[in-house]
């Protein structure tokens, strides 16, 4: 991704971005580079920028490209014009010095998608075509027929044609996980999971009095032999798996491993909860585990992780009708239904193609941001090139909690491995989320600041005294 360098052969020095061949529109690369320089202090308020024609000549781009870049930078409150004296860096706004949040796993805002317009049009279509009274009343059946049909359409890339009656529409994946624990387990039961897993699983299991046992995992996910041993030893009620771009390790389980785990689950008669929020973001992922053991696996797909977090809609595939009824009963005990307006908006977007367009934009933006992380973090980067996060192993002189505290003191939020540990131990790593910072320039600045922090050894930590 773009980085800035000082050119010393003119007076005064000017700043030039290095434009990446596959880094997206060049005017945005220039604007992002300017913002990164302001955030990291390379450019300071009052610094003069080169005239547009001079910058265009240096970069070998059209003058229009630079003009659009400067206009975009002004829109971000980065620049101010001073008439004939030229263009200068503006005084920083509050958002340029706020915490750079690399901790929340949210989809990045895609370039070229007018989300405000998409939201307005979607809601307008819903209000024109739906019975408004139905949007403001109770829906107790796990979603309307049209919502479940939209869910079946959404899951077609994973499963092909589905019977929509096997789907339950839920207010997010966390609610689905909690309801499945209530429906399919009893207090004191064991749930198997990998050593690093989604924190919401641990929170729900602990609250409901269930016990999580960690099963050894390798670079392909849960180890089959260890899974079978744990099944025979602990007689678990459930096993929780997140096989595609796993949160937090970003591992995608290969097809053979999925088949092996599915076969063991069938032999040992244990239910698998397959939480698969990132499948549609992955580059050519294997089929879900649910395709290899349809009657053994409950499958969860949420829109919050691949479209926008405010769309609290998840589709849960539960093939067994008795389990489906128990699941619905458990769900109603704490989350009666999806808000009908949210469900109707999700259905509208899926059926009119807007959701697919937004998904493609998120995928493209995520890949671009992974490229940025790969360039900045260099040899430390261990991502898959897609998805929303990077799992970063730390050098021996840092531990994850220490690094997280040090990063916080420098205005960066990251998530240490301890947040994901399902047993008493944890790996020496952090999760870096690439979508929660809206502007690429600020993301670039955060990654650069983090890279510099990783390169130096920790100093003594002391709290301020006031």
Automatic annotation (TrEMBL):
<dbReference type="InterPro" id="IPR036390">
    <property type="entry name" value="WH_DNA-bd_sf"/>
</dbReference>
<keyword id="KW-0805">Transcription regulation</keyword>
<keyword id="KW-0238">DNA-binding</keyword>
<keyword id="KW-0804">Transcription</keyword>
<dbReference type="InterPro" id="IPR036388">
    <property type="entry name" value="WH-like_DNA-bd_sf"/>
</dbReference>
<dbReference type="GO" id="GO:0008483">
    <property type="term" value="F:transaminase activity"/>
</dbReference>
<feature type="domain" description="HTH gntR-type">
    <location>
        <begin position="24"/>
        <end position="92"/>
    </location>
</feature>
<dbReference type="Pfam" id="PF00392">
    <property type="entry name" value="GntR"/>
</dbReference>
<dbReference type="InterPro" id="IPR004839">
    <property type="entry name" value="Aminotransferase_I/II_large"/>
</dbReference>
<keyword id="KW-0808">Transferase</keyword>
<dbReference type="Pfam" id="PF00155">
    <property type="entry name" value="Aminotran_1_2"/>
</dbReference>
<keyword id="KW-0032">Aminotransferase</keyword>
<dbReference type="InterPro" id="IPR000524">
    <property type="entry name" value="Tscrpt_reg_HTH_GntR"/>
</dbReference>
<comment type="similarity">
    <text>In the C-terminal section; belongs to the class-I pyridoxal-phosphate-dependent aminotransferase family.</text>
</comment>
<dbReference type="InterPro" id="IPR051446">
    <property type="entry name" value="HTH_trans_reg/aminotransferase"/>
</dbReference>
<dbReference type="InterPro" id="IPR015421">
    <property type="entry name" value="PyrdxlP-dep_Trfase_major"/>
</dbReference>
<dbReference type="InterPro" id="IPR015424">
    <property type="entry name" value="PyrdxlP-dep_Trfase"/>
</dbReference>
<keyword id="KW-0663">Pyridoxal phosphate</keyword>
<protein>
    <submittedName>
        <fullName>PLP-dependent aminotransferase family protein</fullName>
    </submittedName>
</protein>
